[in-house]
Amino acid sequence: MTKTSLTRRILPLLAVSILGLTACGSSSVVTSPSDAFTINGEGYSKDDLNELIDVLVDLGQITKENGTIPKADMDSTLQVMVKYQSYLQFAKKNNLEESAANRSKVEEQAVADENFASYPKPLQDLLVNLNLASLTTSEMKAPSAGDLEKLYNKAPASAGVLCLSHILVKTKAEADTALKQIADGAKFADVAKKVSIEPAAKTSGGSLANGEEACNSLESLQQSFDGDFMVGAVAAKPGVPTGPTKSSFGWHIILSHPYDEVKDSVASVLKENPGAALLAGFMATSDITLNSAYGTWVSATAKIA
Q: What pTM value is reported for the model?
């Protein structure tokens, strides 16, 4: 990170774009009218959200349209704050410490930006805290092999890694038939080669491997795969064919591979960025709910509908 990157990076994320977020298979709305969202029962108030939005409007980072905040701007702001509030719980659960040295480093980078001093104090604090969270997470180490196995077996998404195969067909009836064949003893890959309409399945057996890696990071899948498919993928239990799941491409039977079959790839993918992957996994298995005034939080994609 360069000395002037902090506010240039974070403010657009708050006002325009979306942080790489990740999240489990349900869609949720909040019931308390005073909360913008809740994470595992802990609320973030609408008042706090509105104060942040007002600051961004005053700074020209958000422009109202007919007196209202554009949905895209509201969504991106909410997603940033959901991720940060999730990080606070994640850090506490994993005993992550934000070191004084890292805070000083982030603060030095902040004040080097010529615009930083003009921002209101609450926004200055938020920008520093967001960058400190990113730095702290980036320094996190991967869990032990035993702990990783427990995470994956509880819910693969909780490890921030998914190792998937699928069968894609045109109709639900075809998907039901494929699922029955597997239940009756047919191998998943053999059924995929025979009936899947995905061209690669003829040789891959339906594997969604990433090159030589059997697994993918949850974040990368959320960014590139159909949202409805991800709902099924995140919900799938290791070794249990799941479906039928409907997506924009057709009907899927999804297999999340057992840990023993993919453990080396799970560890390899997680090693690339342990903190980010595990935070994604934490969000994937947390109860994140959104006030219905803002839409619906779709956990499998970590996006707002």
A: 0.85
